[in-house]
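Tokens for chain A. Residues wanted.
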């Protein structure tokens, strides 16, 4: 029991010393979330939401895949994840091991995995009365893995922590547009896909796969190891669009479908194949391409429809 008491006493000392050593401070840059000013001392955003990051002249702009989402307040966290933290208790909060001095208006992204541990000091001997009701609430926020520090867009300027599974697009030039050579770096700033290997990279943040335009022509999907997964069907001077969760791919001139996770769900087998609409796609094993000025169209006498598993339907 004495060993436990001494351990808690040491913890208390460390907590109050750490209050002057740790912070969630990011004042070196002015931050914007989806073009709106944001205080990252108050908002804990799950890095899995992040779609792209831009740093320019002291301004850091963070954009998310979904523009509308919800947060938990600290009171929500206490109510949902703890038992026995009363209103009369004195509470010291630590979020991701950092002391939170000002707990007003704290917001925590609701997609985090939240782990809460409450330490009560009631049973500790040799404490003065003012600490008897003190409870230390440790809150750990986890996306999937531990979050390393990252460097943004190859400029070596430290921003803050995001999931280490992502690769970020870098490019040479003032603007990122087709024709500007680009590549990918990991979150430590190390090059994974060299700038200029591909004619253009269409995907800003490489989570599962990215679509690129190859130097020899044609679109391809690559994974985080820069391995080609499959060729992507070209449509309207660019890669095929994801429609109803699927997009077209090609192999040896045949057309199939892949999903947004980069998985081939209908193997390439069709001579012609349209995007899905209302759960079905028009396809044919035998068709011809007819030029129509700058564009072309498909003709076939054996069209039929398939569902999203590739099964023929009426």
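Reply:
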């Amino acid at each position: 029991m004495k060993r436990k008491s001494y351990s808690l006493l040491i913890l208390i000392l460390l907590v109050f010393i750490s209050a002057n050593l740790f912070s969630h401070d990011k004042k070196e840059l002015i931050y914007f979330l989806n073009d709106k000013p944001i205080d990252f001392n108050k908002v804990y955003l799950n890095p899995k939401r992040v779609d792209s990051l831009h740093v320019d002249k002291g301004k850091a702009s963070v954009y998310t895949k979904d523009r509308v989402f919800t947060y938990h307040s600290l009171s929500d966290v206490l109510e949902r994840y703890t038992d026995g933290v009363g209103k009369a208790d004195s509470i010291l909060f630590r979020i991701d091991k950092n002391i939170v001095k000002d707990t007003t208006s704290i917001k925590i992204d609701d997609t985090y995995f939240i782990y809460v541990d409450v330490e009560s000091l009631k049973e500790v001997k040799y404490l003065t009365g003012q600490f008897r009701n003190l409870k230390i609430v440790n809150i750990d926020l986890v996306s999937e893995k531990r979050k390393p520090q990252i460097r943004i867009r190859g400029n070596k300027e430290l921003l803050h922590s995001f999931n280490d599974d992502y690769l970020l697009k870098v490019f040479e030039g003032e603007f990122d547009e087709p024709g500007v050579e680009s590549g990918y770096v990991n979150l430590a700033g190390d090059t994974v896909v060299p700038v200029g290997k591909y004619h253009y990279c269409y995907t800003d943040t490489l989570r599962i796969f990215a679509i690129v335009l190859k130097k020899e022509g044609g679109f391809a999907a690559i994974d985080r190891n820069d391995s080609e997964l499959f060729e992507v069907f070209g449509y309207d001077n660019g890669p095929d669009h994801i429609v109803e969760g699927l997009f077209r791919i090609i192999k040896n001139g045949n057309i199939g479908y892949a999903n947004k996770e980069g998985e081939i769900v209908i193997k390439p087998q069709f001579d012609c194949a349209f995007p899905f609409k209302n759960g079905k796609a028009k396809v044919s094993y035998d068709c011809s391409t007819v030029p129509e000025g700058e564009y072309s169209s498909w003709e076939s006498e054996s069209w039929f429809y398939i569902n999203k598993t590739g099964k023929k339907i009426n």
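The chain has two helices and 32 strands. The longest strand covers residues 134-142.
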